[in-house]
UniProtKB/TrEMBL annotation, chain A:
UniProt subcellular location: Cytoplasm; Mitochondrion intermembrane space
Region (Disordered): 95-123
Binding site for [4Fe-4S] cluster: C198, C201, C209, C212
Record-given protein name: Anamorsin homolog
Recorded superkingdom: Eukaryota
TrEMBL record, chain B:
Domain Flavodoxin-like, first and last residues per copy: 5-149
InterPro entries hit by this protein: CysJ-like_FAD-binding, FAD-bd_FR_type, Flavdoxin-like, Flavodoxin/NO_synth, Flavoprot_Pyr_Nucl_cyt_Rdtase, Flavoprotein-like_sf, FNR_nucleotide-bd, NADPH_Cyt_P450_Rdtase_alpha
Classification via PANTHER family: NADPH-DEPENDENT DIFLAVIN OXIDOREDUCTASE 1, NITRIC OXIDE SYNTHASE-RELATED
Compartments, record wording: Cytoplasm
Keyword Zinc: no
MF GO annotations: flavin adenine dinucleotide binding; FMN binding; oxidoreductase activity, acting on NAD(P)H
Domain FAD-binding FR-type positions: 230-484
Protein species of origin: Symbiochloris irregularis
UniProt GO cellular component terms: cytosol; nucleus
A Pfam family per the record: FAD_binding_1
Name of the protein described by the UniProt record: NADPH-dependent diflavin oxidoreductase 1
Assigned keywords, A-Z: Cytoplasm, FAD, Flavoprotein, FMN, NADP, Oxidoreductase
Amino acid sequence: MSRSNLRGFHDASFVGRLSGVLQSGGKLLVQEAVSATQQDTLQQQVLLGGLTDIRACPDFASLPPGSMGQLLTVEATRPSWESGARSAISLKPKAKVPNGTANGVHSAQSPTQAHSNGTATDKHKIWSLPVSADDELMDEDELLTEEDRQRPEVPSGAACPPTKKACANCSCGRAEAEAAGVKADLTPDMLDNPQSACGSCGLGDAFRCSTCPYRGLPKFKTGEKIALSSDFLTADA
Amino acid sequence: MGTDLLILFGSQTGNAQDVAESVGRSAQLRQLTSTVVAMDAFDIARLHEQVAVIFIASTTGQGETPDNMKQFWRFLLRKSLPTDALNGMQHAVFGLGDSGYQQYNTVAKKLDRRLAALGSAALLERGLGDDQHFSGYDSALFPWLEQLWAALQDLWPHKDQSVLPGSEGQLPTCKYSAAILNFYDARAVLDTPRETHEQEVFAWTAFTRLEAIASGLAAPPKQFSGCGPGRPFMASVIANRRITSPDHFQDTRHIELDLASSGIVYEPGDLLNILPRQNPEAVQRFLRRTGLDAQSVVRLAAAGAESADRVRQSVQVTVGSLVAGALDIHGACPKRFFFEILAHFATEPHETERLLYFASSEGRDDLSQYNTREGRTVLEALEDFPSAQVPLQWLLSIVPRIKPRQFSIASSLRAHPHQAHITAAIVDYKTPHKRRKQGLCTGVAPFRAFLEERAALQAAGNVEIAPCHLYFGCRGANQDFYYKEQWQEYVSTGVLAADGGLVAAFSRQDGRKVYVTHRIREHAQQLFSLLTHKGASVYISGSATRMPQDVIAALEDVVAQQGQIPQQEAKVFLKALQSSRRCVIEAWS
């Protein structure tokens, strides 16, 4: 019997050590202070510690005053088979019951099942079976239909937002369209005496339009020369 | 489960997780409770009990499932699951992918199909986010979410799912709690003798573990000795040599690292994760901007953790080492959530307005323009919105954590015991608006590892090694033909075949442009024989945008021409090679 007022005290590796001193078929009682949401966790840790036949005892003893939560008692058994034991399972369902519990391989009740209010049907047991090396997996590529295998075409120029400037290596024709119109380029005068009709240019990139000639430059106050930072490259390499 | 919605994610770089968390927050605004957790951290035995499950899954470049959903996915693929296994469940899938890759969003598509095949009913058509869109996956996400909320309203018509007035303006719950320790409590941390860099690495390690706990990822393994994922090793640099000619524009380094006592072992083809160090100037700027005191000691914990957990999992570090070591302040772009939270803390009306706009559906293109398209950093964004004073626990939540950089290992342990070599090119590039950025990328590294391994096996004498053929594309023989002498030695020792074992393609030599694809076509006969009679495998390593596709196309031409079969059959042959792993592509961008 192992008892603790500290939540999380019984983790899988500790339970494993406890189970090591049990005889085959021996029982272990674990008591731990848990909150309502943590009952599953304790049972899970006991399962992961290598014990089977896990049962949560429904009577909660009371804890000393001032403790949080409730004392949960979990009873479990050290299995009669040693690690490395093998047994064949047939996974073909017999009537409605998956055959996982036949042939001497005992699958431990999952924490959920121990807690289910009896509505889990036999077919749902398939979710709790541990995945063994014998479990066949389907070929996932078979899941894709012809339509799934298609890739969308690269978005055309029309998909770009209307305010977006043409890219340097424009392949969709926007660059020619822009070249025909008047573009606002950055001039040395603008660096010396920056002005902004909308009032937003000086606030920094966060507030500038995508076509703003000051994009990429630091913030400025109207009329004050813009100081270029040392890592700003003004010419194309 | 107890909550209305179960939101499961499979995330490799954190994007899918971000989306999952934001869906959870949006659900909360609509009075729906939810649980957000990584697929592998969820007890799949309880899946069939769920009524409404939302899946957010990203697809990596080569179509692989993210690590934190691999087990879950394996379980779902079991043939033994009957077609009504998930009757009674409804699902919704949103995928994050990149249509630049052949395997576009295949993970989400397969998941959607498999869930339906197991009897789950789709609430709505799967949504597919695409990095190629102007505003990335947001483009598809916003409309898909609208449909999702409508579908849930139809599913539960009697449940009030309206957004309560005023709720949108409320600050959500922070994932973390942060408390500055007083002088006496801080002493234990400050007195620990650790030099600065080690402190930073310790802060990163501790914060990484805490983040996993706070985010509902699979619980990290308990006390481990030795190094491995999430447990970095401080390696010494044995060598750092430039291996491009001085007149070459690119500075490529051959770097040798001493792994001595780390216990780290690797095989050819493995990746080395290297934790970068941040620019100290940037760290200082950040501390000034946020008003944080580098010397103060903070205790961090996952918010809402129960008391025994809290003590066990809390982290105590100096603020300075946390910022420098764990928070990516001048590298990665922040996410939309960053701007959402910043809006809560900005005090200037025009800043608040702009931040709310960036975080909204209408503003997503402008956000993309400002943020991801310009490689905006956290520090820059904070300086652009100077009125926002963000408390430390929120900074932890919205500033991306420093991620290790991955490098293909360029050496073999057999040739260099206790060492790892990498080949790294330092790349300078400009953003669309001429702001300077730096990047790193690698090329022929895995092949050096591979060939070194084979050379060592051959030298040991007991294994017969079939000669390899290395096709290497670079600019010029004297500029960037990395490890040239080593390849030539391998030709003379037979690790590389005597005939056609080392084939170089120089794209800027003697005024001629020769690419690997040209060379492939020149050696058509030999390559055909290798592929079809000798059972050769092909490994392609190159830039994701074009090179691998071009090589495959060239090989298809070779097979079609030499085998005298139609192009289509040659395509099928190459596809079969790929699915049987006899043709493997490592693509990077």
